[in-house]
Amino acid sequence: MSITVKDVEHVAALARLELSDREKEQFTEQLNAILKYAGQLEQLNTDDVEPTSHAMPLVNVMREDEVSPSLPIEKVLLNAPDEEDGQIKVPAVLE
Q: I want to staple 84 with a disulfide (CB 3.0 to 4.6 A). Which of 22, 36, 69, 89 is the partner?
């Protein structure tokens, strides 16, 4: 399979890109080089290679959840712009 200038023009039109003739030729060459390299990769023997979803093992860097005492409501309400009946009062967002 190879990419033609017409293919590049079609994709450029879909992306609403205006390309010069030199750019069309350049992209055609580059895309064909990519396809040629992908063809080389297809020739590799991967029978004994285990499929993976990530190249490196994933490790969760977050700490474990631990129950701890929360701030007393009086201290929390000190930071609130307005308070009513022990709750933070905010402007209404619904009518």
A: 89
